[in-house]
Specification:
736 residues; Elongation Factor Tu (Ef-tu), domain 3; six-stranded mixed beta sheet; 18 helices; 37 strands; transit peptide
Amino acid sequence: MNRGLLLRFENLVQLRGACWQLRALSSRKVCGAPWKRLQLSAHPVGSLLVHPQLQQKDRSVSAALSQCRHLATKEETKKKKKKIPLTRGEVEIRQKMTVEELAQAMGKDVDHIYEALLYSDINLDSIEPDSILHEDHVKMILQKSGMKYKSAKVKEEKERKNTDAVKRQVVSCSFWLLPPADPAVLTPRPPVVTILGHVDHGKTTLLDSLRKTQVASMEAGGITQHIGAFLVHMPSGEKITFLDTPGHAAFSAMRARGTNVTDIVILVVAAEDGVMQQTIESIQHAKNAGVPLILAINKCDKPEADPERVKKELLAHDVVCEEFGGDVQAVNISALKGENLMVLAEATVALAEILELKADATGLVEGTVIESRKDKGKGPLTTAIIQRGTLRKGCVLVAGKTWAKVRFLFDENGKAVDAASPGIPVEIMGWKESPSAGDEILEVESEQRAQEVVAWRSYAEQQEKMQKDLEVIEAKQKEHRLEYEKKQQKLAHLTWRQRKAVLYKANKHVMFSRPKERTEMEENTLSLIVKGDVDGSLEAILSILDSYDCEEECKLDIVYFGMGDITENDINLAEAFNGVILGFSVKANESIKKLADKKGIKIKLHNVIYKLIEDLKDELSSRLPPTVVETTIGEASVLDTFSVTVGKNKIPVAGCRVHKGLLDRRMKFKLIRNRDVIWKGCLSSLKHHKDDVQVIKTGMDCGLSLDKNLEFSIGDEIICYEEKEVQQTTSWDPGF
């Protein structure tokens, strides 16, 4: 456009020169001088005669004009050669970019990325904003968007130094794995005894009788649902630390955790029931941990008790009692009446003396978390068994990905204590967050060191998770790439226009339902918010939910799980995901219940785990569509066929006899021939002799015609049935 303006300007100057010549001729001021023919350079529309004086003036103008044109042309050339700044045209890419990061780098929204991937080998249903994209797919998206890319400079990441806290060199010492210690500092410690057995065989009642307490009466449903650690003082002055584990099938992980920190296992078997499922599992836990057994045959006071049968049944599981030539002590007891309990205690003390249980009470503390919970006033609390060192107030501990500066220590009765030596159960207060049950407790030198350890463990877990996620993503991408190649092979014979048309039709519903909106179109899903009183309870519930295998009926999505009572945040979360709140041994105050009612949120609170699972199964069943069940009301056989004329149409009629139930014209009917259903529908008429009737009973003859012009055959069966909608029940079996 600038060039055109310059050409116009040049023409105007030439025209001005011509006007000056005409003026000179008219005034005759210029004469005798030769005239020269001038050719216009820009647009040769003709030639002009120019006087020499005027030509000199015009030369100065032309010189200025040519200089201006030269500058303008040079400027245009510079502009053409000048590169566009790398703002929108070029995108910096790097490895492991997520969908969201790529969208931000391109200056687009996430939906633009999904649209670019629509006809690719990636399954859009598996892509989320935080999903990592392969480098080839990133380049493909940029090419489709008309953008250039450049690779970011890879920063060499220095290998992070391992700052984890670990034990010293470990050797076997009794049934705990502890660092070697000077024999001079080793002191005797109480044995840790775990009580195992089937549910309702009297484990907690036995412990109550030894402690002279009533723990069993306070347990929901009369069954233990937490792992408990107690220190029992024997009349002889000996101390024994008991771990009472749940016997219910849902708490297998708790029983395994109990055997991992124990010295002796007391296997409780009811004399009238014998060996049961959890009895066998408990024997296996003890064998895996390499822990010796003492057999306590309980409920021997009952008339139907048969201790000898119990001993013989245990032979099949490699538990051989002393009277059969084995090394397992067997004691017949009655926990309820307190019979032979001292004999059992003496057998335990005698076995502990043989094991020579000693520990190092000096140095840094080491232990194991038995259970963890949250208390409104005290915050996160853990029950732990100390295995080495002496725990005191002010110690800095690390467990899992959290740490604590010990503020208070409590015994099993809630009484504050100053210290806890090896083998003693203690409740620890001062944790930043609740550690998981089974985590190893290690003492460190300072709070700064504890933070270093937690930071390293979080980093290591994150790296491990990223590696696993990357492997899963690569496997899925490979799978989808193979599917994509198969689809392309099927379309290979088509032209590119035909292929685009076929793909458009196939993906039309995906195109118009973007990922943000697709959540509304998802299949039936039950979202859960799970709250428990202690970490072990949550572990058991989540373990049961992991066994859910009926995704084709109703999807199960655990949105959140945690410890503590139901809060307003739980209600808001359930509202956002249209979910249900499951609470185990927790509470919801009146204001929370009112808020839940107002928002239509279901809160299901239970203190017994199998009741909670039953309620969950009912909730899953309620979300299934009802099924239609056919109930047969009557059956009739076709004895003869004929037809009647109605207007110009001939209608087939069957002469039938009812041999079971009755035929009701208001119900539905089906016609069966050679065991195949060839028609379903309603009757157009039902007559007895010449009268229209509603019902034909057993033994009566009738004539009937269908709402469809269908020929009958002698021997056909007419079935009268009623359709009822019946609520489906989930086929999920949690195993108990």
